[in-house]
Amino acid sequence: MLKVDVQKQLDHFNLDMEFELGQEILALVGSSGSGKTTLLNCLAGIVHPDAGEISLNGRNFYREGQKPLKIQKRKVGYLFQDYALFPHLTAEQNILYALSRVADTSPITELTKILGITGLLAKYPHQISGGEKQRVALTRAMAVQPDILLLDEPFSALDDANRDRCQDELLRIHRQWQIPIIFVTHRIADAEKLADRIIRIEKGQMTEQTVF
């Protein structure tokens, strides 16, 4: 269970979020600059709230007055909006980057099959398409066997065919892994297709919550 109750002062407003999430897919919908990505960054440990607390399965990520849990110890998978692949590394090297040398790579082998990127592992980012980069980046996010998966505009750079395929793959992974997934989107259609719950954020405030 993810528990979030945080406040963070941004340039033009205060981000104020409070919700709980089980093994569900949650969509964060809202205009650009509304605080959606900041919330993901707070969950990942890239940004720290000003007040409140964040916990996952009883482990404190952040609690006001205590030292925040380090990023490396949170077991958070994060797919950045621009995918953030290292251009000088192959797809395989990108995927394995965050793993220790003694880590079990068998789940990664299965993921590459599920996501259809086995034939891309020796290629560099400039040699593959946007949809292929997205699948490589998703595999990298899942490689750490995360307890929660965060996706920032994961489908924004994809055409309709690749968007549908990647969405179907995400649903398949969720069924298998049974972990909370939070994704940011501008597209209501994406949220309605994928999410069990939808939270709308405007100027840092939760203005609507839909539960399916």
List keywords for this structure.
212 residues; alpha/beta; Rossmann fold; 6-stranded mixed β-sheet; globular
Would you write up a description of this structure?
This protein is of the alpha/beta class and 212 residues long. It has a single domain (2-211), classed as 3-Layer(aba) Sandwich (Rossmann fold), CATH 3.40.50. The chain is built from 6 helices and 10 strands. It has helices at residues 36-44, 91-96, 106-114, 130-143, 160-177, 188-194; strands spanning 2-9, 14-21, 25-29, 51-56, 59-63, 76-79, 148-152, 181-185, 197-202, 205-211. A hairpin with a 2-residue loop joins β4 and β5. α3 runs antiparallel to α4 (130-143). The longest helix is centred in the last third of the chain and has 18 residues, at 160-177. It is globular and about 45 Å long. The two termini are 18 Å apart. The mean pLDDT is 91.
Q: Write out the CATH superfamily name.
A: P-loop containing nucleotide triphosphate hydrolases
What's the CATH architecture? 3-Layer(aba) Sandwich
* Head-to-tail CA distance between termini: 18 Å
Total domains: 1
- Major sheet details: 6 strands, mixed
CATH topology: Rossmann fold
Query: H/E series, N to C?
Result: EEEHEEEHHHEHEHEE
Low-pLDDT residue intervals, each spanning 5 or more residues: none
Q: How much strand?
A: 25-35%
How many distinct helices? 6
Query: What is the tally of beta strands?
Result: 10
Average pLDDT taken over every residue? 91
Shape: globular
Strand line-up across the major sheet: 6-7-8-3-9-10
